[in-house]
């Protein structure tokens, strides 16, 4: 079925993984595949905004995210699941799409909140961007 499953999560929002993680675990278990869990820490944006942050912001944020991810995996992923953790810093949907290629996954599992038409029109959603551009199937779990 699936040899490699990529689950994307937002460590700052439990809803991004509370329903999606159990789905990804069951799919990995049923297919005997490997589960990759990715969190992307968004960059501050423009160079003007970045200038207000310390130079080592990326390292500090990734260290904190790594610790939080390790705790989440230890508490929520059963021991019989082959799991790999990944961290990235930058544009969320771009990093997800890059990770799909890097690990050669055959399924992406991600949560998405109920649509808000104004927000979707103004900024779009990462799930929408990934679904439209992904070379593999994407399971979107409603959070």
Please name the fourth-level CATH homologous superfamily. Answer: HUPs
| Mean of all residue-level pLDDT scores | 88
Overall tally of domains: 1
**Biggest sheet, open or closed, and with what strands and sense?**
5 strands, parallel
Radius of gyration: 15 Å
Number of helical regions: 6
In percent terms, what proportion of residues is strand? 15-25%
Which series of helices and strands comes N to C? EHEHHEHEHHE
CATH class: Alpha Beta
Number of strands: 5
Judged by helices, strands and strand pairing, the structural class is alpha/beta
Provide the low-confidence segments as ranges: none
Helical percent range? Answer: 40-55%
CATH architecture group name: 3-Layer(aba) Sandwich
CA-based shape: globular
Notable characteristics:
Rossmann fold, alpha/beta, 5-stranded parallel beta sheet, 44% helix, 143 residues, single chain
Structural account:
The chain has 143 residues and is an alpha/beta fold. The chain has a single domain, classed as Rossmann fold (3-Layer(aba) Sandwich). It is 44% helix and 23% strand. The chain contains six helices and five strands; from the N terminus they run βαβααβαβααβ. The protein has a five-stranded parallel sheet with strand order 3-2-1-4-5, sandwiched between helices. Helix 1 (20-31) links the parallel strand 1 and strand 2 (34-41). Helix 4 runs parallel beside helix 6 (126-133). The longest helix is centred in the middle third of the chain and has 20 residues, at 57-76. It starts with a strand and ends with a strand. The mean pLDDT is 88.
